[in-house]
Amino acid sequence: MVDDKPSMAVIYRPQQSMLQRFRSSKNLAIGIVFVAMMLDLMLITTIDPILPDMLYSIDHHESTKMTWQPLHRDANTTKQYIKRTTDIGTVIAAKPATEMVSNLFVGCIIDRFGHKWPMVIGCLANLVATAGFAFSPSFIWLLACRVIQAIGSSLSVVSGLTMLACLFHDDKERARANGIAFGGLSLGIILGFPFGSTVYQFLGRQAPFLILAAITLIDGALRLLVDVPSETEKHQRSNFKNFMQLLTDPYILIGLGCNFILHIGLGVMCTTSPAWILGNLHADQWNLGVILVASSTLQMIAQYLAGVHATGITSRWLYCMAGLILFGAGMAVYPMCPSKWFVIGPEIVSRIGLGMALAVLSALLAHLVDIRHHSDYGTIYGLYCASYNLGFVVGLVSETLSLSYILKDSVKVQM
């Protein structure tokens, strides 16, 4: 007799094919990069505004346990913030400084060995750093966690952008995918500032980092789940000659230079805003979150619209130029704000300009690599990330030094 019953292999084949289609989906790949960038910025924007108060808590040996009682600070706290301005700048600058160096190596490694496992290792590094921020007992521990966070970010972002460049061969599709993925940066900013400031103030120091650690675990599972088709793993065998060709290409240098200039200003803003708004403009932590979430929302909208509409190489250069002009105009007005709520205006202008430029730069550089070089996506995105980290470091260091003197003089006048 012939057995008409279907075999177990036939029964489970549809489910297996559905799972395989999900694992190899381009939308899943975009979602993974989106979540990776969102978590990276959420961790940055969570710790940056609360860092002055975290160092104050460490100095005074305050408990890190979660509590439902809101934190209260008196007028003398401002002086304590000012004393730790250099330490604040050091912790903030440690990430871009480390990332700037590691990006150069990570890009070449990804081009040679593939992008999946660097993404997974980057997630593990971010998990360790996030948990470390929750329990760090000293300034040195915070600094070490910041360095680990930088390595994880380098592995995650460069490998994620490389995966998208390999998956999307059409320039317009790639630009659209990058625009969606970079929306994670804006969403991370939107969620990070109010999330970090509010949760820290009402639930204590551990709460925001433990929540982010849980989300990072989910992100790590997605990175393990994704199954990139084998043909997209055939990365170019990059070498020093290819690296130097990219580094000496005048068009690529212009794009990297724009990225560098933008992040000098962003580094200045990240160093100045929290201590200045909290100390000189007498704002609460939640005020800082509200100010920044409004501007970041408009940045996300501008970033999405620029990524969708700027599909030609000429339009991308124009969007980048307009973004630089708007960013510079907002930065020029920023120090003239007389109160905490007036900061919203220049913050919005600056964030819109930043979003317009960032939305087009990554796709522009990938297109230049396609038409002028050998599609070394890992190397070009490593240089892209290194350029914005270099600008961030320059902005952080220069503003940290000047801000410490400005705030000290302000306190002397008030006394």
Give an account of the 3D structure:
This protein is an all-alpha fold. The chain has helices spanning 8-23, 26-59, 76-83, 85-113, 116-135, 139-167, 171-203, 206-225, 240-247, 250-279, 285-309, 313-333, 344-372, 377-414. Helix 7 packs antiparallel against helix 11 and helix 7 (171-203) packs antiparallel against helix 13 (344-372).
Features of this protein?
415 residues, mainly alpha, 14 helices, 0% strand, globular
Annotation field: number of helices = 14
Report Rg: 22 Å
Nearest-integer average pLDDT: 77
Structural class: mainly alpha
Unreliable stretches covering 5 or more consecutive residues:
66-75, 230-235
Sheet having the most strands: none
Shape by Cα distribution: globular
Number of strands: 0
By oligomeric state, this entry counts as: single chain
Note the gap between the termini: 100 Å
- Work out the strand percent: under 5%
Order of helices and strands: HHHHHHHHHHHHHH
Q: Level of helix content?
A: over 70%
Write the layout of secondary structure elements.
Elements (H helix, E strand, L loop, with lengths): L7 H16 L2 H34 L16 H8 L1 H29 L2 H20 L3 H29 L3 H33 L2 H20 L14 H8 L2 H30 L5 H25 L3 H21 L10 H29 L4 H38 L1
Helix pairs in contact: 2-5, 2-6, 2-7, 2-8, 2-10, 4-6, 4-14, 5-6, 5-8, 6-14, 7-8, 7-11, 7-13, 10-12, 10-13, 10-14, 11-13, 12-13, 13-14
Short note summarizing the structure:
The protein has 415 residues and is an all-alpha fold. It has helices spanning 8-23, 26-59, 76-83, 85-113, 116-135, 139-167, 171-203, 206-225, 240-247, 250-279, 285-309, 313-333, 344-372, 377-414.
